[in-house]
Amino acid sequence: MAFQDSDFTLYGSLVMPEDDVTVNIGGGIDETTIVSFTPMGANSSVEVISDNAADTMNITITGRDVTGAPVSEVVAVNGTTVVAVPGTFKRLLKVVLASAAAGTITVRKAGAAGDLMSFPAGVLTVRRPLIDISADVAGGAERKYYEKLFYKNSNATDALLETKISFVVNPGNAYASALATAVDDAGTNGGGNNRLVKPAALTFDTTEKAIPGDNLAPGSAIGIWIERTLAAGAAAGENTFSLQAAGKGA
Fold first, then answer.
1. 242 has which bridge partners?
2. Buried b (16+ CB within 10 A) or exposed e, 187-217
3. Would the pTM count as exceeding 0.85?
4. Nearest-CA neighbor of 169 among 77, 240, 68?
5. Per-residue pLDDT reduced to its tens digit, 6-22
6. What is the per-residue pLDDT across 177-235, written as a single tens digit (0 to 9) for each?
7. Are 246 and 164 in contact (CB under 8 A)?
8. CA–CA dist 40, 108 (Å, integer)
9. Hey, what's the torsion of the CAs at 59, 63, 65, 67, to 10 degrees?
Protein backbone atom coordinates (compact mmCIF):
# COMPACT_ATOMS: atom_id res chain seq x y z
CA MET A 1 0.00 0.00 0.00
CA ALA A 2 1.04 3.63 -0.38
CA PHE A 3 1.12 6.01 2.54
CA GLN A 4 -0.01 9.60 2.06
CA ASP A 5 1.82 12.65 3.40
CA SER A 6 -1.21 13.27 5.60
CA ASP A 7 -0.60 9.94 7.37
CA PHE A 8 2.42 11.43 9.11
CA THR A 9 2.22 14.55 11.24
CA LEU A 10 4.93 16.20 13.31
CA TYR A 11 3.31 17.12 16.62
CA GLY A 12 4.60 19.00 19.62
CA SER A 13 5.06 17.68 23.13
CA LEU A 14 3.17 18.74 26.24
CA VAL A 15 5.90 21.06 27.56
CA MET A 16 7.48 23.32 24.91
CA PRO A 17 8.49 26.49 26.75
CA GLU A 18 9.38 29.84 25.27
CA ASP A 19 11.66 30.71 28.19
CA ASP A 20 14.62 29.25 30.07
CA VAL A 21 12.72 28.99 33.37
CA THR A 22 10.09 26.31 32.73
CA VAL A 23 11.31 22.85 33.76
CA ASN A 24 10.77 19.17 32.88
CA ILE A 25 10.68 19.72 29.12
CA GLY A 26 8.94 17.31 26.76
CA GLY A 27 6.53 14.72 28.14
CA GLY A 28 3.88 13.03 26.02
CA ILE A 29 2.53 13.99 22.61
CA ASP A 30 0.32 17.08 22.28
CA GLU A 31 -2.03 16.44 19.37
CA THR A 32 -3.44 19.97 19.55
CA THR A 33 -0.02 21.36 18.51
CA ILE A 34 1.86 20.85 15.25
CA VAL A 35 5.23 22.18 14.18
CA SER A 36 5.82 24.38 11.15
CA PHE A 37 9.14 24.93 9.37
CA THR A 38 8.06 27.35 6.64
CA PRO A 39 10.11 30.57 6.83
CA MET A 40 8.79 34.02 5.93
CA GLY A 41 11.66 34.56 3.53
CA ALA A 42 11.11 38.34 3.50
CA ASN A 43 9.18 40.88 5.55
CA SER A 44 5.47 40.67 4.75
CA SER A 45 2.00 41.40 5.97
CA VAL A 46 -0.13 38.31 6.46
CA GLU A 47 -3.76 37.28 6.14
CA VAL A 48 -6.06 34.55 7.44
CA ILE A 49 -8.71 32.52 5.63
CA SER A 50 -10.73 29.33 6.21
CA ASP A 51 -12.24 26.95 3.69
CA ASN A 52 -15.37 26.70 5.87
CA ALA A 53 -17.85 29.56 6.36
CA ALA A 54 -18.59 28.39 9.93
CA ASP A 55 -15.15 29.39 11.22
CA THR A 56 -15.45 32.72 13.07
CA MET A 57 -13.21 32.27 16.13
CA ASN A 58 -10.36 34.55 17.19
CA ILE A 59 -6.85 33.72 16.07
CA THR A 60 -3.68 35.07 17.71
CA ILE A 61 -0.60 35.58 15.53
CA THR A 62 2.70 35.98 17.37
CA GLY A 63 6.00 36.84 15.75
CA ARG A 64 8.60 39.53 15.20
CA ASP A 65 8.03 42.85 13.47
CA VAL A 66 10.46 44.37 10.94
CA THR A 67 12.73 45.60 13.77
CA GLY A 68 12.82 42.18 15.42
CA ALA A 69 10.63 43.26 18.32
CA PRO A 70 7.99 40.79 19.63
CA VAL A 71 4.49 41.43 18.33
CA SER A 72 1.13 39.69 18.81
CA GLU A 73 -2.08 40.42 16.90
CA VAL A 74 -5.58 39.04 17.47
CA VAL A 75 -8.11 38.98 14.62
CA ALA A 76 -11.42 37.19 14.08
CA VAL A 77 -11.56 34.57 11.35
CA ASN A 78 -14.36 35.39 8.90
CA GLY A 79 -15.06 32.08 7.22
CA THR A 80 -14.00 32.02 3.58
CA THR A 81 -13.43 35.79 3.53
CA VAL A 82 -9.81 36.94 3.70
CA VAL A 83 -8.94 38.79 6.94
CA ALA A 84 -5.86 41.03 6.96
CA VAL A 85 -3.65 40.95 10.04
CA PRO A 86 -2.35 44.38 11.16
CA GLY A 87 1.35 45.14 10.80
CA THR A 88 4.27 43.65 8.92
CA PHE A 89 6.09 40.55 10.14
CA LYS A 90 9.75 39.65 9.88
CA ARG A 91 8.96 36.12 11.08
CA LEU A 92 6.05 34.15 12.49
CA LEU A 93 6.61 32.16 15.68
CA LYS A 94 3.23 30.84 16.78
CA VAL A 95 -0.42 30.99 15.75
CA VAL A 96 -3.19 29.93 18.16
CA LEU A 97 -6.91 29.37 17.56
CA ALA A 98 -9.39 30.19 20.33
CA SER A 99 -11.40 27.07 19.46
CA ALA A 100 -11.25 24.13 17.07
CA ALA A 101 -11.99 24.90 13.44
CA ALA A 102 -14.72 23.37 11.33
CA GLY A 103 -12.54 23.61 8.23
CA THR A 104 -8.88 24.23 7.47
CA ILE A 105 -7.61 27.67 8.47
CA THR A 106 -4.57 29.03 6.66
CA VAL A 107 -2.23 31.87 7.55
CA ARG A 108 -0.47 33.13 4.45
CA LYS A 109 1.42 36.09 3.06
CA ALA A 110 -0.85 38.93 1.97
CA GLY A 111 -2.34 38.58 -1.48
CA ALA A 112 -2.19 34.76 -1.32
CA ALA A 113 1.56 35.07 -1.88
CA GLY A 114 2.48 31.90 0.02
CA ASP A 115 1.03 29.69 2.76
CA LEU A 116 2.89 29.89 6.08
CA MET A 117 0.85 27.87 8.59
CA SER A 118 -2.36 25.85 8.40
CA PHE A 119 -4.54 24.04 10.92
CA PRO A 120 -5.68 20.45 10.31
CA ALA A 121 -8.74 19.16 12.18
CA GLY A 122 -8.34 19.27 15.96
CA VAL A 123 -5.20 21.41 15.98
CA LEU A 124 -5.26 24.63 18.02
CA THR A 125 -1.60 25.73 17.79
CA VAL A 126 0.89 25.85 14.94
CA ARG A 127 4.37 26.95 15.99
CA ARG A 128 7.99 27.07 15.06
CA PRO A 129 10.32 24.88 17.13
CA LEU A 130 12.61 26.36 19.79
CA ILE A 131 10.92 29.74 20.15
CA ASP A 132 12.92 32.63 21.65
CA ILE A 133 16.21 30.89 22.20
CA SER A 134 19.25 33.17 22.41
CA ALA A 135 23.04 33.00 22.28
CA ASP A 136 25.32 34.09 25.10
CA VAL A 137 27.21 37.36 24.59
CA ALA A 138 30.37 37.38 22.47
CA GLY A 139 33.19 35.84 24.48
CA GLY A 140 30.71 33.88 26.59
CA ALA A 141 29.77 30.21 26.50
CA GLU A 142 28.22 28.06 23.78
CA ARG A 143 24.59 27.19 24.51
CA LYS A 144 22.62 24.08 23.60
CA TYR A 145 18.81 24.09 23.68
CA TYR A 146 16.52 21.05 23.71
CA GLU A 147 12.94 20.44 22.60
CA LYS A 148 10.83 17.33 22.04
CA LEU A 149 8.66 16.62 18.98
CA PHE A 150 6.66 13.56 17.89
CA TYR A 151 6.16 11.92 14.51
CA LYS A 152 2.82 10.07 14.49
CA ASN A 153 1.58 7.42 12.06
CA SER A 154 -2.08 8.41 11.66
CA ASN A 155 -2.84 5.65 9.17
CA ALA A 156 -5.76 3.65 10.58
CA THR A 157 -4.62 0.20 9.50
CA ASP A 158 -0.98 -0.01 8.40
CA ALA A 159 2.37 0.17 10.13
CA LEU A 160 5.34 1.97 8.60
CA LEU A 161 7.97 -0.76 8.49
CA GLU A 162 11.69 -0.20 9.12
CA THR A 163 10.97 3.40 10.12
CA LYS A 164 13.87 5.84 10.06
CA ILE A 165 13.96 9.51 11.08
CA SER A 166 16.37 11.92 9.40
CA PHE A 167 17.02 15.58 8.71
CA VAL A 168 16.00 16.89 5.30
CA VAL A 169 17.23 20.43 5.98
CA ASN A 170 19.89 21.17 8.61
CA PRO A 171 21.86 24.36 7.79
CA GLY A 172 25.41 24.20 9.04
CA ASN A 173 24.53 21.04 11.02
CA ALA A 174 23.39 23.41 13.76
CA TYR A 175 20.74 20.88 14.81
CA ALA A 176 21.17 17.35 16.14
CA SER A 177 18.59 14.74 17.14
CA ALA A 178 18.05 11.79 19.45
CA LEU A 179 15.08 9.42 19.49
CA ALA A 180 13.14 8.46 22.58
CA THR A 181 13.99 4.98 23.83
CA ALA A 182 10.42 3.72 23.29
CA VAL A 183 7.48 4.49 21.02
CA ASP A 184 4.62 6.51 22.60
CA ASP A 185 6.81 7.56 25.53
CA ALA A 186 6.15 10.48 27.88
CA GLY A 187 9.72 11.14 29.00
CA THR A 188 11.06 14.57 29.96
CA ASN A 189 14.54 15.94 30.60
CA GLY A 190 13.53 15.54 34.26
CA GLY A 191 15.03 16.62 37.51
CA GLY A 192 13.62 20.14 37.44
CA ASN A 193 15.77 20.92 34.39
CA ASN A 194 15.05 23.73 31.92
CA ARG A 195 15.45 23.53 28.14
CA LEU A 196 19.22 24.12 28.36
CA VAL A 197 19.75 20.69 29.94
CA LYS A 198 20.16 17.55 27.81
CA PRO A 199 17.84 14.60 28.51
CA ALA A 200 19.88 12.00 30.36
CA ALA A 201 21.21 8.91 28.53
CA LEU A 202 20.47 10.25 25.03
CA THR A 203 23.16 10.77 22.40
CA PHE A 204 22.65 13.56 19.87
CA ASP A 205 24.03 13.63 16.33
CA THR A 206 22.93 14.41 12.77
CA THR A 207 22.63 10.86 11.44
CA GLU A 208 19.55 8.95 10.25
CA LYS A 209 18.03 6.92 13.10
CA ALA A 210 15.96 3.73 13.24
CA ILE A 211 13.10 3.87 15.74
CA PRO A 212 12.96 1.37 18.64
CA GLY A 213 11.42 -1.86 17.34
CA ASP A 214 11.86 -0.65 13.73
CA ASN A 215 8.13 -0.40 12.91
CA LEU A 216 5.74 2.47 13.68
CA ALA A 217 2.32 0.94 14.28
CA PRO A 218 -0.96 2.62 13.27
CA GLY A 219 -1.75 5.39 15.74
CA SER A 220 1.70 5.30 17.35
CA ALA A 221 4.23 8.13 17.61
CA ILE A 222 7.96 8.35 18.15
CA GLY A 223 9.46 11.11 20.30
CA ILE A 224 12.26 13.08 18.65
CA TRP A 225 14.48 15.30 20.78
CA ILE A 226 16.10 18.23 18.98
CA GLU A 227 19.33 19.88 20.08
CA ARG A 228 20.18 23.37 18.79
CA THR A 229 23.70 24.70 19.27
CA LEU A 230 24.27 28.47 19.46
CA ALA A 231 27.79 29.85 19.47
CA ALA A 232 28.48 32.75 21.82
CA GLY A 233 27.73 36.05 20.14
CA ALA A 234 25.61 34.48 17.38
CA ALA A 235 23.38 37.09 15.74
CA ALA A 236 19.60 36.86 15.83
CA GLY A 237 18.10 35.38 12.70
CA GLU A 238 15.52 33.07 11.17
CA ASN A 239 16.92 29.56 11.00
CA THR A 240 15.05 26.38 10.24
CA PHE A 241 15.38 22.65 9.89
CA SER A 242 13.06 19.90 8.73
CA LEU A 243 12.66 16.18 9.41
CA GLN A 244 11.24 13.20 7.59
CA ALA A 245 9.99 9.75 8.54
CA ALA A 246 10.75 7.09 5.92
CA GLY A 247 10.09 3.37 5.72
CA LYS A 248 8.16 0.66 3.89
CA GLY A 249 4.46 -0.02 3.58
CA ALA A 250 3.10 -3.44 4.44
1. 169
2. bbbeeebbbebbbeebebeeeebebeeebbe
3. yes
4. 240
5. 788 999 999 999 999 99
6. 999 999 999 999 999 999 999 999 899 999 999 999 999 999 999 999 999 999 999 98
7. yes
8. 9
9. 170
